[in-house]
Amino acid sequence: MILAACTGASSTTSQQPIEVVSVLGPIPPFNPGGPVVEITLKMCPANPLFL
Amino acid sequence: MKASLGIIRAGPSSTPFIFNFEVTPSNPLLSDKTIGTQLTLIGGGFSDNVSYPLIIEGNLESGTEYSYTKQVQIESPLVQNPDPWPGVSVYRDSNSPIMTRVNETFSIMLPPTPLFGWGWQNIDLSAFSLLETKTVPGSGNEPNPFGPNAFLFKALKIGTFQITLYVPSKPPQQLESFDIVVNL
């Protein structure tokens, strides 16, 4: 499920270089301490990203 | 790069849930590439059809910092991927024989069962190789917090065999025996 699409290639903070591909949970197996959630992100074109 | 998921944590702590992604200058996230990470939300909970803020932060190659918020909903992985092994035949009914070939894979999937999921056995250990097990939802998409209920096998030799799946209690319960015909 695509939650948000890229808003275009840019190196400025006014646009969004990362697309949220999915946020899934709870991921099995069941964990009594709390649910496990998985987030997958995608780099939009022409935005090499460092930490 | 990190992402903070804005859901309520039980107890006195208000520490956000921060997902850290393994992205470094020596391991950058390149264009059109994806990256995923998991986090156990200790003390956290969420609901279906509710949007939560996700704050995404990081630096671009140029050094420019960015930080922005997306509203996201947390989807069940069970809905996302109902087939445990896409492209592999799934058998659910032990009354129907499994027809396969040597070196081909097939899977058996049964409803979620309490205790520790399903165990399996077959008399001729050289006939099959168990490649992988998964814990997946039932056919009605009911959750499976118990244990493995999907099994991926590879047929190794020609013949007629049987694989039995069971709940590993004493004595074993809910025996399901699948007849398997392996052709060349």
Describe the structure in your own words.
Chain A is mainly β. Chain A is 0% helix and 33% strand. Chain A has strands at residues 18-24, 36-43, 49-50. In chain A, strands 1-2 form a two-stranded antiparallel sheet. Chain B is an all-beta fold. Chain B has one helix and 13 strands, in the order βββββαββββββββ. In chain B, the strands form three sheets. A four-stranded antiparallel beta sheet of chain B has the order 2-1-4-5, with no helix packed on it. Chain B has a four-stranded mixed beta sheet with strand order 6-8-11-10, with no helix packed on it. The relative contact order of chain B is 0.16. The interface between A and B is large, with 40 and 55 residues.
Specify Rg of chain B, calculated over alpha carbons: 22 Å
Question: Could you spell the SSE succession of chain A in H and E letters?
Answer: EEE
C-alpha Rg of chain A, in Å? 14 Å
Tally of DSSP β-strands of chain B = 13
- Report the β-strand fraction of chain A as a percent range: 25-35%
Rounded to the nearest angstrom, the distance between the terminal CA atoms of chain A is: 25 Å
**Structure classification of chain B:** mainly beta
Shape of chain B: elongated
- In the sheet with the most strands of chain B, the strands line up as 2-1-4-5
| Beta strand % of chain B | 35-45%
Order of strands, widest sheet of chain A: 1-2
Number of helices of chain A: 0
Biggest protein-protein contact in the assembly: A-B, 40 and 55 residues
Low-confidence stretches of chain A: 1-5, 8-13
Number of helices in the DSSP assignment of chain B: 1
Q: What composes the largest sheet of chain A?
A: 2 strands, antiparallel
